[in-house]
Amino acid sequence: MNQQNFWNQRYADEYYAYGTLPNDYLKEKSADLRAGKILLPAEGEGRNAVFMAKLGWEVEAFDQSTAGKNKALLLAEHNDVKISYTISDVENIRYPENSFDALALIFAHFPGEDRRIEHRKLSRFLKSGGLLIIEGFSKKQATFQQLNPKSGGPRDVGMLYDLEELKEDFSDFEFIEAAEQVVTLAEGEFHQGEASVIRIFAVKK
């Protein structure tokens, strides 16, 4: 099954696979930020996009899942906000360079052989002084998956994050926070329980 079909199948049900509430780390980091324009890659069913729109941000999101987009727009309508949502994979997405104030990669995992290329591409869309917020599963998540499959993350270890590799991917950023830690996730059906994640908060130089 290709990635697009996988995600369309996961998002096919009426319920929201990862819930309708925002990711905790994004919520924490955005609390004191002045609203601007934010890009949310691999946004799925829209929980983070809708949350940022409610804070007054101009939101651009993309994902390869049509089912995800449909549910994201429905969630936005229910919350009386507007988001812009494009159907695309990261390889083919296009935005003007230096056009976003923030980039949030929330469990946005790309194939290992393309990861650095795609991360650097996405970072070019961000203005100098723009903010980068990342939460994703670390390489150690493979062990947590064995203990609890519902803890989440790609089964392909090559798609899991390594902190030093991420720092190299975003080498033109100043890192305010960059840590690997164990957290307890409670995000819908598929992010439940203890998980090993990497969290990054950085500013583009």
Please, could you describe this protein's structure?
The chain is of the alpha/beta class and 205 residues long. The chain contains 7 helices and 7 strands; from the N terminus they run ααβαβαββαβααββ. It has one domain (3-204): 3-Layer(aba) Sandwich (Rossmann fold), CATH 3.40.50. A 7-stranded mixed β-sheet has the order 3-2-1-4-5-7-6, with helices on both faces. The model has no long low-confidence stretch (mean pLDDT 97). It is globular, with a radius of gyration of 16 Å. α5 (112-124) crosses α7 (163-169). The chain has helices at residues 3-10, 24-30, 47-54, 66-78, 112-124, 141-147, 163-169, and strands at residues 37-41, 58-63, 84-87, 100-106, 126-137, 173-187, 191-204. The longest helix is centred in the middle third of the chain and has 13 residues, at 66-78.
